[in-house]
Specification:
Keywords: Membrane, Transmembrane, Transmembrane helix. By secondary structure, the protein is an alpha+beta fold. It is 41% helix and 25% strand. A five-stranded antiparallel β-sheet has the order 1-2-3-4-5, covered by helices on one side. It has a three-stranded antiparallel β-sheet with strand order 6-7-8, with helices on one face. A hairpin with a 2-residue loop joins β4 and β5.
């Protein structure tokens, strides 16, 4: 279940909504810890006469690869969606996006999708057409695996979009 700030009632302007994936953070943290522990176990399981054969640059390379793998897992776990009166701000891994409400056509989370998507209206102001070339962005903080909480998050984003586009 993603961490979800409870929605404000429709009658008043919604506060800022922040959604983070719980399952993704748990899995990434578990894998990162397991990877570090297995690496340490593997290193200390080597006999001393084998360990001394590794040069400093080889040791640094191994540590760099470990840091890269852990860094990728942490970056994915830090995915977040923030919705306020100006629109959506979201981070997928290391990349951030800002989408104003007038560019949001629809927030979609279908059965079998790994995460939610936001379908965007064309930047040139032309009409939205639902085809394979439609511009979209992933909302990795809304993971399908988080079940009902992800659906609640999608519904709340849809409600906020309706609220801010009708004002």
């Amino acid at each position: 279940m993603p961490d979800l700030v409870r929605p404000a009632p429709d009658a008043v302007a919604p506060s800022t909504l922040v959604i983070r994936p719980r399952r993704l953070r748990l899995v990434a943290a578990s894998f990162a810890v397991a990877l570090v522990l297995v690496t340490l176990y593997g290193w200390f399981a080597l006999p001393d006469d084998i360990q001394v054969l590794f040069t400093t640059s080889q040791r640094l390379t191994l540590l760099g690869v470990l840091a890269l793998l852990v860094g990728v897992m942490v970056a994915l776990a830090l995915s977040v969606v923030r919705a306020d009166e100006s629109g959506l701000w979201f981070r997928n891994g290391l990349r951030t996006h800002t989408v104003p409400w007038d560019r949001v056509h629809q927030v979609v989370l279908r059965r079998g999708d790994p995460w939610a998507f936001v379908l965007l209206t064309p930047a040139d102001g032309s009409a939205f057409s639902a085809d394979l070339d439609a511009e979209k962005r992933q909302l990795m903080a809304l993971q399908y695996g988080d079940g009902a909480a992800a659906q609640v998050g999608v519904e709340e984003l849809r409600r906020r979009q309706r609220y801010w586009t009708t004002r």
